[in-house]
Write a structure and sequence with these properties.
membrane; single chain; carnitine transmembrane transporter activity; alpha/beta; five-stranded mixed beta sheet; 2 domains; 289 residues; Glycine betaine ABC transporter substrate-binding protein; cell membrane; globular; D-Maltodextrin-Binding Protein, domain 2; three-stranded antiparallel beta sheet
Length: 289
């Protein structure tokens, strides 16, 4: 006899929730290149397709394009919006067309990061130590894509702290490759980074103090959707509202993906090893009904 997963068995015993499930199970999830975003988007794609019959497409676009496309109904949901500061500029033009739902992660971090062996503790200190952080011949801060929120905040930090440095924008993987190379050689490097991120489990890193508060305080991550999504799919809305992750669960998911080297295979491996956690989300969503 084929073994039935606990999630499927739970679903079979949930007539109320099943009745709330959308008839049209085509779903477009907007993603960006942040490590945790790729991780959770692939996790939910696998769960919804394999266990609940959805047809899920991941649409990887820039932040500006994501919000615009969602406001027009071309993207249904996205798993990550940082509030109240980081993603507010992206949300503001579309706040009447989009809906921010419940939080799933609390206590984020965002800012400039160096390896712990670097004898610099504050962004302000970079002004006098800029020459220590040369990259391709000039003092640099290594960042991710120029359209990201953290890139804009880093431009603000360079201006406010009057740093004689430039931000070098590239992809997240390229930035991490540069960090890995510098770390292996114990060379100075400063990068833009955020938590949750698997890098803090892999390397001994520290945030530089930000006395001017350019990068803001710790924030909360919510999922969000086009404005009418909750009425179109109340079941999935309740499930995602019940979804919660912390440093252990999210860090473990990201670390598994990084170790495996593939977001789909890594997310599947994490799902297989954490059925109890997933079933708790489903049970919490049922309780909400």
């Amino acid at each position: 006899m084929k073994k039935i997963s606990s999630a499927l068995l739970a679903l079979a015993l949930m007539p109320t929730s099943q009745g709330l499930m959308a008839q049209d199970k085509n779903l477009v999830i907007g993603t960006n290149n942040w490590a945790e975003n790729i991780a959770v988007a692939n996790m939910w794609k696998i769960l919804l397709e394999d266990e609940y019959g959805y047809d899920v497409k991941l649409s990887n676009v820039s932040k500006n394009a994501l919000y615009a496309a969602m406001s027009q109904g071309d993207i249904d949901i996205s798993m990550e919006i940082w509030l109240p500061i980081t993603d507010k500029p992206f949300l503001e033009p579309y706040k009447d067309e989009l809906q921010v739902h419940d939080a799933w992660y609390e206590g984020t971090g965002l800012g400039l990061v160096v390896p712990s062996y670097v004898d610099v503790d504050s962004i302000a200190e970079l002004k006098e130590r800029a020459d220590d952080f040369e990259y391709q011949g000039s003092p640099s801060i290594l960042g991710i894509d120029s359209g990201s929120a953290i890139a804009g905040l880093t431009d603000d930090a360079i201006e406010q702290y009057e740093l004689p440095m430039s931000q070098v924008n590239s992809s997240g993987p390229a930035m991490m490759a540069a960090l890995d190379g510098a770390y292996a050689s114990q060379e100075p490097i400063v990068v833009t980074l955020w938590s949750p991120h698997w890098a803090f489990a892999e390397y001994d890193l520290k945030y530089l103090e930000d006395p001017k508060g350019v990068y803001g305080e710790n924030e909360t991550i919510y999922w969000f959707s086009r404005g009418d999504f909750a009425s179109d799919d109340p079941w999935l809305t309740e499930v995602l509202n019940a979804w919660k992750m912390d440093d252990d669960s999210l860090g473990g998911l990201m670390a598994t993906i990084e170790e495996v080297g593939d977001p789909v295979e890594g997310a599947q491996q994490w799902i297989d090893n954490h059925r109890d956690t997933i079933d708790q989300w489903l049970a919490a969503s049922e309780a909400a009904n």
